[in-house]
TrEMBL record:
One of its GO terms (cellular component) is cell outer membrane. One of its GO terms (biological process) is monoatomic ion transport. Residues 47-122 form the Polysaccharide export protein N-terminal domain. It comes from Sphingobium yanoikuyae ATCC 51230. Residues 128-174 form the SLBB domain. InterPro entries: Poly_export, Poly_export_N, SLBB_dom. This is Uncharacterized protein. GO terms for molecular function: polysaccharide transmembrane transporter activity; porin activity.
Length: 232
């Protein structure tokens, strides 16, 4: 079985990498088993991935028996914060609704309300968006609700063009704070001979070799610190 080695390019070597970025191609990214180790398919038996609040999301907050502290809709600002009565500014980006509810309850309970009960909901999700580009009928940015898959994302873009190369489907994703990529064979997925990889908010999907090549070069030149995954 092939193993994966992670090569991290430090900022010190970035000028050299940029000068050589034209030498890289999608061949540098993992395929097959290596790709699925990096970006697995959704396991139906696994717990549903929690939703993390992001900038520009709209949320609802309910404090039991406290109508002045309850809101049908609050928008998270571009910095990932909200202003809440009695408490002030709260950093909410990256927290689940349950985590935010517990944080608000803790703050209110310290000085203002005895044993507050707080519920937080998602009114509108902005963070759960994916970009689909390349050889699809309708490239663009699409919202996803909960978990999604590569086939579902391609369907949202109204399918492939006639010149699309199905074995050159690339997904970019931020993993542990760094951008990574992998290539999947859409033909095998459609035939049921390969799993359908899970798509997460923030993913970038590129269909077709020529589009992938250009986007990969852009990815290399744009990232100040990145990982390249290769098969050995």
């Amino acid at each position: 079985m092939n193993s994966i080695r992670r090569l991290t390019i430090a900022p010190l070597f970035l000028p050299l990498v940029l000068s050589l970025s034209g030498c890289f191609s999608p061949a540098d990214l993992p395929r097959g088993e290596a790709a699925y180790r990096l970006m697995p398919a959704q396991d139906p038996a696994s717990p549903r991935r929690p939703y993390y609040i992001g900038p520009e999301d709209k949320i609802s907050i309910r404090v039991f028996q406290e109508p002045d502290l309850s809101f049908d809709e609050l928008q998270v600002d571009s910095g990932g914060n909200i202003n809440f009565p009695l408490i002030g500014e709260l950093a909410v980006s990256g927290k689940t609704p349950n985590e935010l509810g517990a944080m608000i309850a803790s703050r209110l309970g310290q000085n203002f309300i005895r044993d507050p009960q707080v519920m937080v909901g998602i009114v509108q999700s902005v963070a759960q968006r994916v970009t689909v580009s390349g050889n699809v009928m309708k490239p663009g940015v699409y919202e996803i609700a909960g978990t999604s898959s590569l086939l579902e994302a391609v369907s949202r873009a109204e399918g492939l063009t006639r010149v699309a190369v199905k074995d050159q489907v690339l997904i970019f994703r931020t993993i542990d704070g760094q951008r990574s990529g992998a290539i999947f064979n859409l033909a095998l997925i459609e035939e049921g001979r390969a799993p359908d990889p899970q798509i997460l908010g923030g993913d970038q999907i590129v269909i077709g070799f020529s589009a992938v090549k250009g986007t990969y070069r852009d990815f290399l030149t744009a990232a100040p610190l990145f990982n390249i995954f290769r098969r050995y």
